[in-house]
Amino acid sequence: MTRWKGGIVVDSMDELVDRVQRQVYRMRDLHDQLARIRAREASEDEAMTVEVDGNGAMTALDFSDAVNGMTPGGFESTLVATAAAAAASAFARRARLIEEFNAEVAR
Protein backbone atom coordinates (compact mmCIF):
# COMPACT_ATOMS: atom_id res chain seq x y z
CA MET A 1 0.00 0.00 0.00
CA THR A 2 1.29 3.43 -0.98
CA ARG A 3 0.08 6.77 0.30
CA TRP A 4 0.43 9.62 -2.16
CA LYS A 5 0.42 13.31 -1.44
CA GLY A 6 -3.15 14.39 -0.76
CA GLY A 7 -4.02 11.20 1.12
CA ILE A 8 -4.63 8.92 -1.88
CA VAL A 9 -4.06 5.33 -0.85
CA VAL A 10 -3.48 2.71 -3.55
CA ASP A 11 -2.11 -0.81 -3.66
CA SER A 12 -0.37 -0.49 -7.03
CA MET A 13 0.62 1.93 -9.73
CA ASP A 14 -2.06 0.40 -11.96
CA GLU A 15 -4.66 1.26 -9.36
CA LEU A 16 -3.39 4.83 -9.19
CA VAL A 17 -3.47 5.20 -12.97
CA ASP A 18 -6.99 3.75 -13.06
CA ARG A 19 -8.17 6.14 -10.35
CA VAL A 20 -6.66 9.18 -12.08
CA GLN A 21 -8.12 8.12 -15.43
CA ARG A 22 -11.61 7.78 -13.90
CA GLN A 23 -11.28 11.27 -12.41
CA VAL A 24 -10.21 12.72 -15.76
CA TYR A 25 -13.24 11.12 -17.44
CA ARG A 26 -15.48 12.45 -14.68
CA MET A 27 -14.00 15.94 -15.14
CA ARG A 28 -14.79 15.74 -18.85
CA ASP A 29 -18.35 14.68 -18.00
CA LEU A 30 -18.66 17.64 -15.65
CA HIS A 31 -17.39 19.99 -18.34
CA ASP A 32 -19.94 18.63 -20.82
CA GLN A 33 -22.76 18.88 -18.28
CA LEU A 34 -21.84 22.47 -17.44
CA ALA A 35 -21.74 23.37 -21.14
CA ARG A 36 -25.27 21.99 -21.61
CA ILE A 37 -26.89 24.02 -18.84
CA ARG A 38 -29.76 26.17 -20.05
CA ALA A 39 -32.36 27.87 -17.88
CA ARG A 40 -35.55 29.55 -19.14
CA GLU A 41 -37.70 31.90 -17.14
CA ALA A 42 -40.82 33.77 -18.18
CA SER A 43 -41.81 37.11 -16.71
CA GLU A 44 -44.82 37.11 -14.37
CA ASP A 45 -46.98 38.70 -17.06
CA GLU A 46 -45.52 36.31 -19.68
CA ALA A 47 -44.49 39.30 -21.79
CA MET A 48 -41.02 37.85 -22.24
CA THR A 49 -39.01 34.68 -21.78
CA VAL A 50 -35.26 34.69 -21.22
CA GLU A 51 -32.91 31.75 -21.67
CA VAL A 52 -29.37 31.75 -20.30
CA ASP A 53 -26.47 29.33 -20.29
CA GLY A 54 -24.58 28.03 -17.27
CA ASN A 55 -22.55 31.25 -17.08
CA GLY A 56 -25.67 33.40 -17.01
CA ALA A 57 -25.15 34.67 -20.57
CA MET A 58 -28.38 35.23 -22.46
CA THR A 59 -28.87 32.72 -25.26
CA ALA A 60 -32.49 33.50 -26.22
CA LEU A 61 -35.03 36.23 -25.66
CA ASP A 62 -38.65 35.90 -26.74
CA PHE A 63 -41.42 38.48 -26.51
CA SER A 64 -45.18 38.19 -26.56
CA ASP A 65 -47.51 40.92 -27.77
CA ALA A 66 -47.77 42.09 -24.14
CA VAL A 67 -44.51 44.03 -24.54
CA ASN A 68 -46.34 46.48 -26.82
CA GLY A 69 -48.17 47.94 -23.84
CA MET A 70 -45.12 48.27 -21.59
CA THR A 71 -43.41 51.52 -20.75
CA PRO A 72 -39.67 51.66 -21.41
CA GLY A 73 -39.01 51.51 -17.67
CA GLY A 74 -41.40 48.60 -17.22
CA PHE A 75 -39.79 46.78 -20.11
CA GLU A 76 -36.34 47.32 -18.67
CA SER A 77 -37.20 46.23 -15.14
CA THR A 78 -39.11 43.17 -16.38
CA LEU A 79 -36.23 42.15 -18.63
CA VAL A 80 -33.64 42.55 -15.87
CA ALA A 81 -35.76 40.66 -13.31
CA THR A 82 -36.53 37.83 -15.73
CA ALA A 83 -32.90 37.50 -16.82
CA ALA A 84 -31.77 37.51 -13.18
CA ALA A 85 -34.26 34.75 -12.35
CA ALA A 86 -33.01 32.64 -15.27
CA ALA A 87 -29.39 33.21 -14.25
CA ALA A 88 -30.15 32.24 -10.64
CA SER A 89 -31.71 29.00 -11.85
CA ALA A 90 -28.72 28.24 -14.08
CA PHE A 91 -26.27 29.00 -11.27
CA ALA A 92 -28.19 26.70 -8.92
CA ARG A 93 -27.94 23.85 -11.44
CA ARG A 94 -24.26 24.57 -11.91
CA ALA A 95 -23.67 24.55 -8.14
CA ARG A 96 -25.45 21.18 -7.78
CA LEU A 97 -23.32 19.62 -10.51
CA ILE A 98 -20.11 20.92 -8.94
CA GLU A 99 -21.16 19.76 -5.46
CA GLU A 100 -21.91 16.28 -6.81
CA PHE A 101 -18.55 16.21 -8.57
CA ASN A 102 -16.69 17.31 -5.45
CA ALA A 103 -18.44 14.66 -3.36
CA GLU A 104 -17.48 11.96 -5.86
CA VAL A 105 -13.86 13.06 -6.06
CA ALA A 106 -13.55 13.21 -2.27
CA ARG A 107 -14.37 9.51 -1.94
State mean pLDDT (0 to 100 scale). Answer: 90
Helix-strand sequence? EEHEEEH
In total, the number of domains comes to: 2
Query: Beta fraction of the residues?
Result: 15-25%
CATH topology-level name of the largest domain: Ybab, Chain: A
Describe this structure as you would to a colleague.
The structure is a single chain. This protein has 107 residues and is α+β, with helices and mostly antiparallel strands. It folds into 2 domains: 1-36; 38-107, Ybab, Chain: A (2-Layer Sandwich). Helices cover 54% and strands 21% of the residues. It contains 2 helices and 5 strands, in the order E-E-H-E-E-E-H. The strands form 2 sheets. The chain has a 3-stranded antiparallel β-sheet with strand order 3-4-5, covered by helices on one side. A two-stranded antiparallel ribbon has the order 1-2. Helix 1 packs antiparallel against helix 2. The longest helix has 35 residues, at 72-106. The protein is rod-shaped and about 70 Å long. The two termini are 17 Å apart.
